[in-house]
Specification:
GO terms for molecular function: 3-isopropylmalate dehydratase activity; 4 iron, 4 sulfur cluster binding; metal ion binding. It is an enzyme of class 4 (lyase). This is 3-isopropylmalate dehydratase large subunit. [4Fe-4S] cluster binds at residues 358, 416, 419. The longest helix is centred in the first third of the chain and has 17 residues, at 88-104. It is globular and about 60 Å long. The N and C termini lie far apart (60 Å). Helix 2 (45-54) packs across helix 5 (157-166), helix 12 (363-373) packs across helix 14 (400-407) and helix 12 runs parallel beside helix 15. The strands form 5 sheets. The chain has a 5-stranded parallel sheet, with helices on both faces. It has a 5-stranded parallel sheet with strand order 17-16-15-18-19, with helices on one face. Strands 11-10-9-12 form a 4-stranded parallel sheet. The chain is 31% helix and 16% strand. The chain has 3 domains: 11-171, Aconitase, domain 3 (2-Layer Sandwich); 175-246 and 270-294, Aconitase, Domain 2 (3-Layer(aba) Sandwich), CATH 3.40.1060.10; 302-470, 2-Layer Sandwich (Aconitase, domain 3), CATH 3.30.499. The protein is built from 15 helices and 19 strands. The protein is α/β, with parallel strands linked by helices and 477 residues long. The structure holds 3-isopropylmalic acid and iron/sulfur cluster (SF4).
């Protein structure tokens, strides 16, 4: 390459370089400009108070977008027009967000609003999330928006305050990691199974300090909703963000969405966005590759998302752990989960199924669950919670709600719900829940509750079978 030619750059580097207001020096992080700041009720009260205490205005109300999701009820409002909250704290949080957004002029999609929903579902749905943007939110699953070729990551509450006040953020430049996914996913194997397999391979710390880029033929073949499932869980392997290069699938998804550029402006944006993908010859700090065709439906058996196995596999035996520390951690996980070393995962008893969360609550996820439940009955408590009011409307227009109700499942209002159990939707101590969410930490879905993470099809199969089941073998259910 001649010295005058520009260095090939990765997708991450292009987005980072375009947003650096002040470069990083030895002891000071870079100042990074933020294009889109998403806000929800849990991580904003102190941040808005910080502004109020200093008498500062919100720097860019037009680049700040609010919704409520974590603490919101998923049962419809009563005949008196009132929502029934899980507890007083949940209601207070929601009220604070309403007041703060009104006081600071933030567009808020609150309860009952046709665009309300989980923050990581509504950003893309409204076309607010776009390629090449920097997107932040006081929420670790902000990585979801990376599916559009945005640099999107979670920030802490004090940083939320900085962004509200300045539209900028102090950031150290992360390293880069490319996850190259060869081949094609087999029928019955989904993006959720792929990301669980990637995390199982790399470990919960495998991406620490890095921004991941998912690339390769298997990724190109995925729709936007599936790509979001993948990017969403990047944080579960410690990655700062998880990006996917924008392509025609991305542009088609965005065309006509209310907050996307319209008409000639859209065409101009697409022309710009086409320059974002990683250049041939660009260097990553680390590269891994995985064969999509070899994957099976996955399910977690432990208390972190890397503790996963094919659904046809078995719970590992701590006696075979490579060292004492690994053995102790395995033993701890199995004790909490009440599972025996070597036991088959198929047939493991399940008490509750949760289909929802920012990982798997979009229309294609619900279609998958409905495909499995259609004409069948669930054997246990099954909650289906759409990711947004828009997903709920579309699902109902297709009659998916009927399929779920006829099967005996509960069809709820949009929100985070049982993913985090902040709104009163929870499992009981000792119960097993096959969940399409992203975290199986101890007590995540309710104190003492045991979570097994899986895809919508695997979760629906468990609901119908009353136990862990293989979604590719519906004929035996
Ligand atoms: C409540 C919020 C701060 C939290 C997050 O950061 O991700 C939640 O969304 C989660 O999934 O654990
Ligand atoms: S659905 Fe779950 S993971 Fe997603 S933002 Fe809500 S609580 Fe966090």
């Amino acid at each position: 390459m001649s010295p005058t030619q520009p260095q090939p750059r990765t997708l991450f580097e292009k987005v980072w370089d375009a947003h650096v207001v002040k470069p990083e020096t030895g002891d000071t992080p870079a100042v990074l400009y933020v294009d889109l700041h998403l806000v929800h009720e849990v991580t904003t009260p102190q941040a808005f108070s910080l502004l109020a205490a200093r008498g500062l205005p919100l720097r860019r109300p037009d680049r700040t977008l609010g919704t409520m999701d974590h603490s919101t009820p998923t049962t419809p409002r009563g005949a008196d027009g009132r929502w029934v909250y899980g507890d007083a704290q949940a209601e207070a949080q929601v009220q604070r967000l309403v007041e703060n957004c009104r006081a600071f002029g933030v567009e808020l999609h609150g309860l009952g609003d046709p665009a309300q929903g989980i923050v990581h579902v509504i950003g893309p749905e409204l076309g607010a999330t776009q390629p090449g943007m920097t997107v932040v939110c006081g929420d670790s699953h902000t990585a979801t928006h990376g599916a559009f070729g945005a640099l999107a990551f979670g920030i802490g509450t004090s940083e939320v305050g900085h962004v509200l006040a300045t539209q900028c953020l102090l950031q150290r430049r992360p390293k880069t990691l490319r996850v190259h996914v060869e081949g094609r996913l087999a029928p019955g194997v989904s993006a959720k199974d792929l990301i669980l397999a990637v995390i199982a391979k790399l470990g919960v710390g495998g991406g620490t300090g890095h921004v991941a880029e998912y690339a390769g033929p298997a990724i190109r073949a995925l729709g936007m909703d599936e790509r979001m499932t993948l990017s969403n869980m990047s944080i579960e392997m410690g990655a700062r963000a998880g990006m996917i290069a924008p392509d025609d699938t991305t542009f088609q998804y965005l065309a006509g969405r209310p907050k996307a550029p319209q008409g000639a402006a859209f065409d101009a944006a697409v022309a710009r966005w086409r320059g974002l993908p990683t250049d041939a010859g660009a260097r990553f700090d680390r590269e891994v590759s995985i064969d999509a065709a070899a994957l099976e439906p996955m399910i977690t058996w432990g208390t972190n998302p890397a503790q996963a196995a094919p659904v046809t596999g078995a719970v590992p035996d701590p006696a075979q752990a490579p060292d004492a520390a690994a053995r102790a951690s395995l033993e701890g996980a199995l004790r909490y989960m009440g599972l025996r070393p070597g036991q088959a995962l198929l047939g493991q008893k399940v008490d509750v199924v949760f289909i929802g969360s920012c990982t798997n609550s979009r229309l294609p996820d619900l279609r998958e669950a409905a495909r499995v439940m259609r004409g069948r009955k669930v054997k246990l408590r099954t909650l289906v919670v759409p990711g947004s009011a828009a997903v709920k409307r579309q699902a109902e227009a297709e009659g998916l709600d009927r399929v779920f109700r006829d099967a005996g499942a509960e069809w709820r209002e949009p929100g985070c719900s049982m993913c985090i159990a902040m709104n009163g939707d929870r499992i009981e101590r000792g119960q097993y829940c096959v969940s399409t969410s992203n975290r199986n930490f101890e007590g995540r879905q309710g104190a003492g509750g045991r979570t097994l993470l899986a895809s919508p099809a695997t979760a629906a199969a468990a609901a119908v079978a009353g136990a862990v089941a293989d979604p590719r073998r519906l004929e035996v259910l």
